[in-house]
Write a structure and sequence with these properties.
- The protein has 212 residues and is mainly beta.
- Helix content is 6%, strand content 37%.
- The protein has helices at 11-16, 205-210; strands at 25-27, 30-37, 58-62, 64-65, 75-77, 107-116, 124-132, 135-140, 143-148, 153-158, 166-175, 188-190, 193-194, 197-202.
- The strands form four sheets. The protein has a six-stranded antiparallel sheet, with no helix packed on it. Strands 1-14-7-10 form a four-stranded antiparallel sheet, with no helix packed on it. Strands 4-13 form a two-stranded antiparallel sheet.
- A hairpin with a 2-residue loop joins strand 8 and strand 9.
- The protein starts with 10 loop residues before the first helix and ends with a helix.
Length: 212
């Protein structure tokens, strides 16, 4: 987590303050291929491979929350944990950190392709997935780039060493429950997914040193 900033390409763009219209910004929002299972044991394990066949998968829009699109149940809990709330406590009768239900851990797998802008060649490139809710594992072009279990905060990675000119494949697998849920016993709807997903560039240290 860090302060909210964005590296615009010039002073005029910065004064306008609209990163979505900047040449340093690229959205990945829209339809993603999506596969949901009720329990993590049923999840695909080779989903991150570039040549994986996802043609039979559903389409899910990002931003989007699973439970509001027919994938599992939205659960409201004040103080406590959703997997031991009334109606769902058959899976785990009482809190037992760091354990979560073995027979019920909904898992969603995302995939989408994107083409990198030609003028981004040689730039430092970041992936940002905003307001992630779930234990999420991120892969780019078949390589693991990182994971997050923090609730509803941006997840950002420097993907410069992995991203390539032209077509790229991004894959994400997200579990609804993890040990991180034990830090989130508060008053809100328990929903899963993430908000906007985007790419952005910033000057590399070499660019900064030569521009002085």
């Amino acid at each position: 987590m860090h302060t909210n900033y964005f590296a615009y390409e010039d002073e005029n763009s910065a004064l306008k303050g609209c990163k979505e219209s900047s040449g340093n910004f690229m959205t990945l929002n829209g339809n993603w291929k999506f596969f949901w299972v009720k329990n993590a044991d049923m999840r695909p394990t080779d989903f991150y491979q570039v040549n994986f066949n996802d043609k039979g998968w559903d389409d899910l829009k990002v931003p989007g929350l699973w439970e509001l699109n027919g994938y599992g149940d939205p659960i409201y809990v004040n103080v406590g944990y959703e997997f031991v709330s009334p109606g769902f406590d058959k899976y785990l009768q009482e809190p037992n950190p760091p354990m979560v239900p073995e027979a019920w851990n909904p898992t969603g797998t995302y995939r989408r392709d994107f083409a990198l802008p030609a003028n981004w060649k040689g730039k430092r490139i970041f992936l940002s997935a905003d307001a992630v809710k779930g234990a999420a594992y991120f892969y780019l072009n078949g390589e693991f780039i990182g994971m997050s279990k923090a609730g509803k905060v941006p997840v950002q990675f420097d993907i410069t060493p992995v991203v390539k000119p032209g077509e790229n494949t991004l894959a994400v697998q997200m579990h609804r429950f993890s040990d991180a849920n034990y830090f989130e016993g508060q008053d809100f709807w328990r929903l899963t997914g993430f908000e906007s997903c985007l790419l952005y560039t910033s000057p590399s240290p070499r660019d900064l040193s030569t521009s002085r």
